Amino acid sequence: EVQLVETGGGLIQPGGSLRLSCSASGFIVGSKYMSWVRQAPGKGLEWVSVLYTGRTTYYTDSVKGRFTISRDDSKNTLYLQMDSLRVEDTATYYCARSNDYSNFFDSWGQGTLVTVSS
Amino acid sequence: SYELTQAPSVSVSPGQTAIITCSGDKLGDKHVCWYQQKPGQSPVVVIYASNKRPSGIPERFSGSNFGNTATLTISGSQAVDEADYYCQAWDKNAYIFGGGTRLAVL
Fold first, then answer.
1. Which whole-number Å values give the CA distances from B5 to A73, B9, B31, in the listed order?
2. Which residue among A88, A113, B8, B46 has the highest number of C-beta atoms inside a 10 angstrom radius?
3. What is the tens place of the pLDDT at every residue in B8-37?
């Protein structure tokens, strides 16, 4: 059974850093395109970043230069390093796996809440 | 950058057909998927590749995608279908979400 478990969220001051982790089971993280998707309180879904199997990365414009997506194949875990955090980064962050057949997310974690506030 | 547009809300009576649309430039040339999200839960895909239904999703959910508009149709809507629905496409190495449509079944 595929499972994604995010950890690392919390309350952080503006300008601070946080690293989110997504531990995967039931499949190999390095064999799939893996993304982070966020959802601000009461708002819609927003894709944040993707890590391809070959380690190529892409980011939405608002986080470029501040966020870094990576993975540790030995731990089967995906990460999101978030630096220079802003109030507008406050959201629940989901780890999501892309499907091989079509570019959609076939598995999601339960999400971890990041609150950026002074 | 590519954008997808959805109506903020749709309401339907139980047993009736709910139609939720998603528009974008030449969207019919892309694969579209639809997610259902209930309060406090993670999204779940109900339609992928514009018109395919994952295993475990009821047959009352169907999708189409032509021209500039993708459509999610829920035939015989039930109270359990009340949720937020998001369309999503892929464009130039980015996953694009629509703003979401809240479906009320009342």
1. 37, 12, 15
2. B46
3. 999 999 999 999 999 999 999 999 999 999
